[in-house]
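yo, 3-ketoacyl-CoA thiolase is done. seq:
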Amino acid sequence: MFSVGVRRGVTPLARSMATHARVSTILEKKPEDVVITFAKRTPLGRAKKGQLKDFPADELMRALIAATLDKTKLDPAKIDDICVGTCHPPSPAYISRAAALAAGVPASVPVSTVNRLCGSGLQAIRAIATAVESRQMTLGMAIGVESMSQNPRPTPEIVDAVDANPQAHDCVQPMGWTSEMVAQVYNISRAKQDEYAFISHSRAEKATASGIFSEEIAPIEIRGTVISTDDTVRMGTTAEGLAKLKPSFPNWGESSTTAGNASGLGDGAALCIMTTRANAEKEGLEILGKYVTSSFVGVEPRYMGIAPVVAIPQVLAQAGLSKEDVDVFEINEAFASQFAYCVEQLDVPIAKINPNGGSIALTHPLGMTGARQVVTGLAELRRRGGAILCTSMCIGSGMGGAGIFVNELR
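structure:
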């Protein structure tokens, strides 16, 4: 559990006034604010089996950037920089630059790439936001992308002298192993993991059936085919079916992680256009949201999945908020073991967390997720009329990230 920063003896009226003051400060609109004027994602595809399995990361990026330029009518020459978060494609800077050029971005616009594993999409957003905030540029594009079909996770290699350090050894172990370590050390039972997994599956099924995700998806055209819906949600998933699944990692820990209570491997991309409020108003760009702050933390690599428990309090403190001030949380579901632990330690109502399901149901294209959570969270805030979004994820090797965003279409 973490403190919400309210002292004992404070009256309900004083507490209410303090909360109002905190939130009012965050919601205040200033010309120099870093705002989001466009936030969309591609449909998701199931790795190796789904609709995007034959399309490399550069093709996904090209399609999403082209769809963005067509939808927004933005003059691409006005983009000052593009930052792409991705994990495993070879030569990522080359393919990202090539994808932007092929999508119609002029050669005058530079491109960079960042890799913070599962936090890469958020890292790209932070890079663009920081550059805009510091007036090094005016308008930028942040992208998160991964093709786990074309570029599955390689086995990290470290030399013996590095591997001799226990923490260094743990930080390159398979993610499934870390899931089992969390389940074993923090007593997260298989039944509890399946319970949280069923929440994710059932919420995503309901959202898919009702067409909710269409609000955040930009249909993309690839090789003459238009793709507009996810193919990753397993409709008809039941609690009984989840309970029957065999362990995915029978040689580790409690062997409680299964294909049904862990995030799926997936393909996809997400994108945010960011600028100052003053420039957005000058250019007549719709303002969807505001970037407030973000934070990255480190934890013991062996228990990588618990990182949101550290990252979320830190980012809330940076923003001057309490957890009660947040309307929607998007916390990545890498594994139900770590997700269950985080939800219960943070003591946040599950109704506020991943209301349309998370990566257990939707899949987790590593570089995409940090950007997708912002796209998904802002869309949900618009539906609810809510104001504040907190995103968070655990990150391979023993790290975590979190971000605070504001919905401006209330």
